[in-house]
Amino acid sequence: MQHAGFYPISLANFFTLLHFTSESRQRVSVRTPRLLVPLLGSAYLAFLAVNHSTHAQVAASQSIEVTAEALPSAYGAPTSFSQSRFSPTTNAYVLPPGAIYASLIYEDDVVHFRPPDHHFTEEVEIGLPYRFNVAFENDVQHFDGDTQDATFSVEARYAFADWDNIPLNPTIFAEYKFGIGNILHDEGAPTPAHKFGPGGFDKGEDIPDAYELRLLLSEDFFDRVEWSLNTFFEQETAGDRGREWGIAQSIVTPIHLFHEGETSPAADYRTGPGKAVQPVAGTSALVEELKAGIECQFRSFSDKESRGTPYNSFVIGPTITWRTTHNLRLDISPLFGVNHKSPVMELFVVASYYFGGGHGAEAGGEAPASTRNR
To answer: For the chain, which terminus, N or C, has the lower number of CB atoms within 10 Å?
Structure first.
């Protein structure tokens, strides 16, 4: 019985086996780096490509993401026509649904033959769906040492179509004014006090109720000029049945543009509050914060005793609009009379604040001046 399989191998065979194993290890140690280097190089190039693609995508997304203007548009209208009061003497279009506009209006009438007449009016207007607005006003008057709560008004307005669907964007306005205080001075042409008799003007007569109708027209020309015109008719329902009609007109243009940051009407609000993604990369616009222009007002007043000889006045002067913050706006208009029957000066100062108003389908998107109507 042979046991060859269990005997140890000879020394010669052992050294032969060691030599063969060493050569095999050398061949393996040589081949391994030759395979590993190309694999590592390929992996590194792939990493660089993926990393570059990722950075490119981030850069592209950052180039089209901008901070959106906080004030929404009313049915596609620019901001100036979406805030109830276009200038101290004119209104334009309507508010977006859900928006609230609050203002404090100061008016100083400097006329011949009598002390200045000061009015402080608090106004709140609310935007409703389908291009409707409602508003409330309260007028406090100070004249010749007397201060009184003079009138309280309820207003409504309606725009016939979305912005720029009808030329000049016609809007109708109706107001009913409740008389609360007394008539403190003559309502017609300023008259010397001695012509009213020894006691002067009688301040004991109540202010009558009155209604007013207006047609509001407004337009944005060439993306640089903004215009508003109001025609109005007011009729007292009692007393001497005073009647007034007239035209007020304002035209303004940006004179200084501070910084960029508005979005186009097509912007998709999906990136969180105050953010929007523009459809075109690199598109930007300038925020209009300071505007200046000119405005004027013609008024014709008569009562039941003077229908054939009305008192006509005309004032004209500069107007400045400054949006101090996103929501706060300041308007100043000193208007000067053109003849001896007109007021010497009518100074208007309006501080207004804008609340809310969503970016829904009815509200539309804000179109900056540089991209409107494109």
So the answer is: N
Distance CA 91, CA 77 (A): 14
| Coil vs helix vs strand at 304 | coil
User: Residues near 216 by Cβ (< 8 Å), separated by ≥ 6?
Assistant: 90, 91, 92, 93, 157, 170, 171, 172, 173, 228, 229, 230
- Residue 23 φ/ψ, nearest 5 degrees: -65, -40
> In whole angstroms, how far apart are CA 52 and each of 38, 47, 55, 63?
21, 8, 5, 16
β-bridge mates for residue 341, sequence order: none
Measured at the CA of 197, the angle between CA 196 and CA 198, to 5 degrees, comes to 135
Across the chain, mean pLDDT equals 78
C-alpha span between 244 and 199 (Å, rounded): 28
- pLDDT tens digits, one per residue of 180-221: 999 998 888 888 877 887 878 888 899 999 999 999 999 999
Collapsed DSSP state (helix, strand, coil) of residue 15: helix
The pLDDT value given to residue 258: 54
Which pLDDT score is estimated for 199? 76
Sort residue 164 into left (φ over 0), alpha (ψ -120 to 50) or beta.
left
> pLDDT for 143-189, tens place per residue?
999 999 999 999 999 999 999 999 999 999 999 999 999 999 888 88
Identity (one letter) of the amino acid at 107?
E
Q: What is the pLDDT of residues 9-33, one digit of tens each?
A: 444 454 454 444 444 444 444 444 4
pLDDT score, position 346: 96
What is the 8-class DSSP label of residue 8?
P
249 Cβ contact list (under 8 Å, min separation 6): 90, 227, 228, 229, 230, 295, 296, 297
Report the C-alpha gap between 142 and 126 in whole angstroms: 28
Q: Are strands 328-337 and 311-323 parallel, antiparallel or unpaired?
A: antiparallel
Of 196, 324, 320, give the one whose Cα is nearest residue 254: 320
What's the pTM value of the predicted model, to 2 decimals? 0.71
